[in-house]
Amino acid sequence: MKYTDSVVRPIGKHEPFNFSCGPHVPCFNECCRDLNQFLMPYDVLRLARHMKTGTREFLNKWTLSHTGPETGLPVVTLRPAEDGGKCPFVSCQGCRVYDNRPSSCRMYPLARMLKRSRQDARIDESYALICEEHCRGFEQSRAVTPLQWIAEQGLECYNELNDALIEVISAKQSRLPGPLDKETAERLFFALYDIDSFIRDLAGTTGEECENLGLCPDKADAGNDESLVRFAVKYAACLLRHKAEKAGTSWN
Ligand code: SF4
Ligand code: SF4
C-alpha cells in the first residue's frame, strides 16, 4: 500500500481511534489498486499455502525480487497485475487471499515501530496512525485501540516472525554494512523466501551447510510453518555471523 498525502500521528497502544474497513466503506478496495507491497518470509509462506503451491512456484508467479541497494539483502514484492498496477489478489468482492493476506495489509492503518533499550536490551513498541486523505475508514464510528487491532487482525504471529528477521537485518547492517556478495544474497533469498525448497534440501547440501554453521538441520519442524520461518531466520543469522567473523568483525 502506498502512503501518499498522509498524516502520520503517534498513538498510544491503548488509545482508541475510529476505524473500520470492508464492503460498507465507499473507498472499498481503493488502497489495493496502487500497489507497492513488500512481503516478509512468513507472508510468502502463508500466501503460498493459500494458493496451494510451493514457495518456488508462488515466488515465480506472484512476486518480483530485488536486492536492497543499501543492505544487499533480498527484497520481495507482490507482482502488480498487468492491468494497471493493482494487487493481483484484489477482486470486486474484496481480497481473494483475505485469510492469508500479508502483514502490511493487516497492519494498515497502523504503523508499528520498535526500539531496543541500550540499558537492558528490552524492545519497546510504539504506534502511529497513517491517516490518508482517501481512506474513509476513519469516518466510521467503530472505535478500536492499536492492541485490539493487532489481535483482531491476527498479527501477533506475523509480528513475532517479522521482528526476528528485522533484528537480523539490523545486526547485519551494523556488523556488515553495505552490499553482500552474490552467493550470500542468493542463499539468503533461498532460505528466507523459498522456504519449501530450502527445507527439502536439508537432507542434502543445505543440511551440510547448516551443520557447518552450527545449526542442527533436525531442528526444522517441517510440520509447522511458523517453526520453518524461525529456522530460516536462524539460518540467516548464522550465515551472516559466519560472514562477519570471516571478515574479522564480532557479531555479538
Ligand atoms: S493482499 Fe488483499 S488486502 Fe492486501 S493489497 Fe492485495 S487485495 Fe488488498
Ligand atoms: S477504508 Fe481505507 S483501508 Fe479500507 S478500503 Fe478504504 S482506503 Fe483501504
Please, could you describe this protein's structure?
With 252 residues, the chain is an alpha+beta fold. It folds into 2 domains: 6-154, no CATH class; 158-246, no CATH class. It is built from 9 helices and 10 strands. The strands form 4 sheets. It has a 3-stranded antiparallel sheet, with no helix packed on it. Strand 8 and strand 9 (123-132) form a beta hairpin. Helix 5 runs parallel beside helix 9 and helix 6 runs antiparallel to helix 9. The longest helix has 22 residues, at 225-246. The two termini are 36 Å apart. The mean pLDDT is 92. Bound molecules: iron/sulfur cluster (2 copies). Residues 21, 25, 27-31, 108, 134-137 line the site of one iron/sulfur cluster.
Ligands: iron/sulfur cluster
Span of the ends, CA to CA: 36 Å
Structural class assignment? alpha+beta
State which percent range the strand residues make up: 15-25%
Oligomer: single chain
Total domain modules: 2
Q: Can you count the beta strands?
A: 10
Major sheet summary line? 3 strands, antiparallel
**Given the structure, what is the number of helices?**
9
Task: Give a topology summary.
Layout: E1 6-11, E2 17-18, E3 38-39, H1 41-50, H2 55-62, E4 63-67, E5 74-78, E6 90-91, E7 94-95, H3 103-107, E8 110-116, E9 123-132, E10 143-144, H4 146-152, H5 156-175, H6 182-192, H7 195-200, H8 205-212, H9 225-246
Antiparallel strand pairs: 1-9, 2-10, 3-5, 4-5, 6-7, 8-9
Helix pairs in contact: 1-2, 5-9, 6-9
One iron/sulfur cluster binds at residues 21, 25, 27-31, 108, 134-137.
